[in-house]
TrEMBL record, chains A, B:
Sequence ranges assigned to domain 3-dehydroquinate synthase N-terminal in this UniProt record: 75-187
Domain 3-dehydroquinate synthase C-terminal: 189-332
Assigned keywords, A-Z: Amino-acid biosynthesis, Aromatic amino acid biosynthesis, Cobalt, Cytoplasm, Lyase, Metal-binding, NAD, Nucleotide-binding, Zinc
Domain of life: Bacteria
Cofactor note (record): Binds 1 divalent metal cation per subunit. Can use either Co(2+) or Zn(2+).
Gene (name only): aroB
Protein name: 3-dehydroquinate synthase
Length: 370, 370
């Protein structure tokens, strides 16, 4: 029994079809197979994990499943963003085919964002789609990538360029798994938590300003509150716009810049959350230059990322290199870049066109001097 | 103007979302860009074709589009089923990324089933989904693969193992493109046409018995009638069951056997339609042994395939090899193979379990003696 468990629902209805699903958040959920069982159409699952997370949590999960008569096969991948590619995806396909996994065999992602994105895309495309469950074990995955159905892989020419929208049947976020998360990764996850406050909820942002020290120190109550509120905000947005035709793109605050940083540095050198932190500072600087927010807002934003121990200065590259990488962004339309900007803390908007001169000034201001 | 054009609609509604689309069938439609324009969200498209079809029809299509102010990029792939794989898919991704194709850039498949399946899967997964149009140029693609949204690629361990359900915005079946189709490919397409009569429409089957000579001789009216009726039957079935939870699987008559033949021979040695023809004879033989149809029915089925110049004898392999390949079928559930059987000519059903002995006898009866 776990009295502290909380559940957020992602509501996705279209006509007769109901693809809504619960996100369960709390301590010690990994062994609570009763959360998982109702979502498994077959007494066989394939668990995809990596060489870091596997040794920590795989045996616990498999034993719990076995106790309920669920057989599992194990697919362990190398760890890291630089493995989120077609070759690693093919390792999953090969294992599924070799083990004769079927249309009703559920794929379970046990790990961080890379495992979730890879496994989700494999689930979306293996036999044209099999059931999928997310068990995120990093803060970033618990508050962001496991919710909302974005799956995919990187291409040498750009991040997340190949993928699908494919929703899980259930998400199980066990905050106990964060105990083994390195500090740097915890902080990277906090970048996305701050983002939710910035784009949608000034009160949550203020709560984060007051509780950042507790979060960084892994206070369990503070973490569970941050995870729950982040999931609620993401669930609301995804329910309103599953395929990113409109409001969902606001979740990309800082990501056009951030993806360019990740790509320029080489995937995995900066963590995604670190690149997003610096990218949000750039988006905030751009918003200030467009007179949407003022210097004081910008300073508050800088301060909260600093408090979280996240980078607030972008790595130095030629502006043209940034431009060229930002033009790979999926929001580009008719060759024009579009950015998510802040109207104020707690409210984001999509830009139409931004003058190149202002963009260049923003890049120069935000880059490290050397 | 084209007075003889006919339009079949695939009705796909789910709630507010309407993914229904038209299939336009007739002569000389390739240059009629008014059929295409309403479905293009951007004045830029990427046309995917192959080295056989490109030289015949690409210039005509591009010139017609240009006349309407639509810019197009060209992606020409090698021809053949053995290229329906991850490497060729990656050629499409690379070209789309290199040319900065965006979320609103439409992908147009100009070619047969392989081009349609590859391009559709690229459209389903590039930037998590871009608009897609099918211009099928083989009979097989016009009556089958271009309709219904099945897309995908082969894996060394099995055919069509990786893919997605992804619907086109419009299908344009120009029967003039069949003029350049080799005889062998025309006959392969007729296998799927016969299948529609067998599973769903005894009157259409009888019409085919009477008109097979005209079809094989490429009588334009006979061809257009066969294409239209085939598309109508497929559209009805897809509308009822888009993701193959039930009735749609009846379209797989002969395909469990057929896929095993294709795989055992090596992809591309037998054409898909040829393997399906022999596979349908095997399914019919199995149905007879299960006392669902009688010897007279079986003889009629053999005769119509023979009239179409299609193989009615399966290649010789060990039964165990057939079993092992058939177990890769996507219909396998809990390790049990399931088959589409005939109750009578014009009515198909899904089998539950078939005794191994009857299956073995069926294989032995249907295989070539040497």
């Amino acid at each position: 029994m776990n009295n502290s468990m909380q559940t957020v629902r992602v509501e996705l209805h279209s006509g007769d079809e109901d693809r809504s699903y619960p996100i369960h958040i709390g301590k010690g959920l990994l062994a609570q197979t009763d959360l998982l069982l109702p979502h498994l159409p077959q007494k066989r699952v394939a668990i995809v994990t990596n060489t870091t997370v596997g040794p920590l949590y795989l045996a616990l999960l498999r034993t719990a499943l076995e106790g309920q008569g669920i057989a599992s096969i194990e697919i362990t991948l190398p760890d890291g963003e630089d493995h989120k590619n077609g070759q690693t995806l093919n390792l999953i396909y090969e294992a599924l085919l070799a083990q004769r996994c079927e249309r009703k065999t559920t794929l379970i992602a046990l790990g961080g964002g890379v495992i979730g994105d890879l496994t989700g895309f494999a689930a979306a495309t293996y036999l044209r789609g099999v059931p999928f469950v997310q068990i995120p074990t990093t803060l970033l995955a618990q508050v962001d990538s496991s919710v909302g159905g974005k799956t995919g892989i990187n291409h040498p020419l750009g991040k997340n360029m190949i993928g699908a929208f494919y929703q899980p049947r259930v998400v199980i976020a066990d905050s106990d798994t964060l105990n083994t998360l390195p500090d740097r990764e915890l902080r990277a996850g906090i970048a996305e938590v701050i983002k939710y406050g910035l784009i949608r909820d000034v009160q949550f942002f203020e709560w984060l300003e007051l509780n950042m020290i507790r979060l960084v120190a892994r206070d369990p109550d503070a973490l569970n509150t941050a995870i729950r509120r982040s999931c609620e905000i993401k669930a609301e947005i995804v329910a309103a716009d599953e395929r990113e035709g409109g409001v969902r793109s606001l979740l990309n605050l800082g990501h056009t810049f951030g993806h360019a940083i990740e790509n320029a540095m080489g995937y995995g050198v900066w963590l995604h959350g670190e690149a997003v932190a610096a990218g949000i500072i750039m988006a905030a600087e751009l918003s200030r230059r467009l007179k949407l927010i003022n210097e004081y807002d910008l300073e508050r934003i800088r301060r909260i990322f600093q408090l979280a121990g996240l980078p607030i200065v972008a790595p130095k590259f030629l502006s043209e290199d940034y431009f060229s990488l930002m033009k790979l962004d999926k929001k580009v339309e008719e060759g024009r870049m579009r950015f998510i900007l802040l109207n104020k803390i707690g409210k984001a908007m999509m830009s139409h066109e931004v003058p190149t001169s202002i963009l260049t000034e923003t890049l120069v201001t935000c880059m490290a001097n050397e």
